[in-house]
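We close this part of the discussion by returning to an individual protein. Part of our work consisted of pairing the sequence of a single chain with a tokenised description of its backbone. No coordinates are needed to read the tokens, only the vocabulary itself. The amino acid sequence and the backbone structure tokens for this protein are reproduced below:
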Amino acid sequence: MKPVIVVHGGAGRIFKEREEGSRAGVARAALRGYGILKQGGSALDAVEEAVRSMEDDPHFNAGCGSVLNEKGEVEMDAIIMDGKTLDSGAVSAVKCIANPIKLARLVMEKTKHMLLTDRGAHLFARAMGIPETPGEKLITERSRERWKKNLEPDSNPEEFQKDLGTVGAVAIDSEGNVACATSTGGLSNKLIGRVGDTACIGSGGYADNHSGATSTTGHGESIMKVVLARLILYHMEQGLSPEMAADTALDYMKTRVGGLGGVIVVNNSGQWAARFSTKQMSWATVKDDQLHYGIYAGERHTKSVDEALTFESEGF
């Protein structure tokens, strides 16, 4: 099997001044994940590395750069899933962790559980030796300004929810195993303790070697209502291509509950798709040593992996 990785940096609205950084961020994440796959590494390692890269990038609403809850704090959710065994690990409402995706994987591999939340996740992180990151270090000036603006009496909650930015990755490795990973800071000015779709298996992501893997982004409550990730895999199990399965599920979510979002998909034969019903979604994929990436519908830039790695430090 030829390895493939697909990543997204969130569906919604990407402001002009952030487009270049978003393109570069997803391209860099895809290249890092693909580097693991190219050396014979696992899909699990590849998606974790790709998501970790975006958690460290302040352009995205995950890890450093996460939006703030109603009290001005960062609370994050993440999930990872192994398509070979259907094992999954997730964390929700976690604070002071630089890379929630790493903690989610430890939940999968070091506990008998699938989801740890809030204080329990914090205690588990400490037991696993994951260093605490002061909450202030995860807060960017942009997130703080956005939080303050949303506190104003005349602010429009629906408007700020369009600018989402959840990150995710799906991959298939040379052994034919698939995996998914998703990480987010959630909705700006959300209630304390709010958990969205990301940490919920079948909503924020799903992976099964029998069909494929997907990671979702968009309005979390809508995604949960239709269990979007599992719905996409169901359509693929009925014979639809990744692109058709994604479009069918996104259309259902829009018509049934009025929700917009985006998805990345890879099936068990290595076909992939990056689809969205929002105005934009940053995405990138590497297959056959070719990097493809874009933000707008119909936009697709292509570079060889060697060329992309050469110019990585200069942007894309």
Notes: The mean pLDDT is 94. The chain has one domain: 4-86+139-314. Residues 4-86+139-314 form a domain with the Glutamine Phosphoribosylpyrophosphate, subunit 1, domain 1 fold (CATH 3.60.20.30).
